[in-house]
Amino acid sequence: MTTRTLITGGLVITAADETHADVLIEDGRIAALAAPGTQEWSASADRVLDATGKYVIPGGVDVHTHMELPFGGTFASDTFETGTKAAAWGGTTTIVDFAVQTKGQSLRAGLDAWYAKADGNCAIDYGFHMILSDVNDRTLKEMDLLVEEGLTSFKLFTAYPGVFFSDDGQILRAMQRASSNGGMIMMHAENGLAIDVLVEQALQRGETDPRYHGEVRKALLEAEATHRVIKLAQVAGAPVYVVHVSAQEAVAELARARDEGLPVFGETCPQYLFLSTDNLAEPDFEGAKYVCSTPLRPREHQAALWRGLRTNDLQVVSTDHCPFCFVGQKELGRGDFSKIPNGLPGVENRMDLLHQAVLDGHISRRRWIEIACATPARMFGLYGKKGTIAPGADADVVIYDPAAEQVMSAETHHMNVDYSAYEGKRVTGRVESVLSRGELVIDQREFVGRAGHGAYLARGTSQYLG
Ligand SMILES: [Zn+2]
Question: What residues make up the domain containing 149?
């Protein structure tokens, strides 16, 4: 039996258009848009959702999350269940998380482990990128197989020597492989070898507080690594996507490469747009809440990031959601900032913070949807199904109240973490209802979804290539 849901009276916003329209959903997909008040539709609908005075937007697509990630002797505190529920509360209906290859193991073994963590537990749809921590002949061959199966993006690191680090030769080989198999290489770009020297020297000087995390992970070392991975990609004839860009010098490297016509892409995250080294310097070890890599930068860098988002030198805002509780997890680094688990919670906050950026005049409404929904979907082979409201697309739809006010707080958020990086921040705009493939997950601020509704997404190759 066909189920029909009708969303009436809202302003439908996509990356391309803003239109007052009713949206008809049939069997989990968008069936059609029509002029408001189209009579024959409301007569035949099983369910009508009134969006008068609200926005009707595509569900958010967050292409950088780390649920349950093992890091620094502990695990990110959100499971796939708690993290995807929190994502839904924040208007995100798709995540792409990172499966991790353990050194010495196959990619397949890593992927199977992450499938097992996520399977049956997600409230929204999910996919995986693959973290390559051991590039060799065998894993290069495995990349081809994964691309064919719909796992089309691979992340490598110039940071974290001894853990995820790849040397330039390994990075080049992975990029060459991607250039032939259609995969996308994602790079964490910081010069990890140089940073480790600065970490050691800082600790020897007795500089152990969280703020030194920001000082040793220098903007120049992000810019250098960004430049290097762009050149390696150019030599390999491959595209490259630089994750969590935070330094204005790194934005400049991306802008220069794009001006040269290279297929170079960059994402930033809300923490770099809204927080700064002022937070890392908060007293009584509170700065540990803001330890992530790349690190928060001095406030002056924010203008370059906003400009990059407006000029399309940066194309995506993801969260790099990787929460660790302050009590018992962040505290592992008391007396030694290098032992603070790296990561911030944010999967629930991204759509709201970027809506606030619309009100603050940084970006337009359509650009909000573009950087948070449409482009991330397109970048990683999901567009058409995800990232827009158009006939044939999955009915991942958010009814968003642009006038509701909220105060962000750990008291009220749904992420499984004991602090909010935005505690006390007032923003205007809030999710009212969320549908995932036509099923209500959030119904007027009530969670009505379920773990296990979320399905694994096999992806195409990047829709920015070829
Ligand atoms: Zn990350």
Answer: 59-379
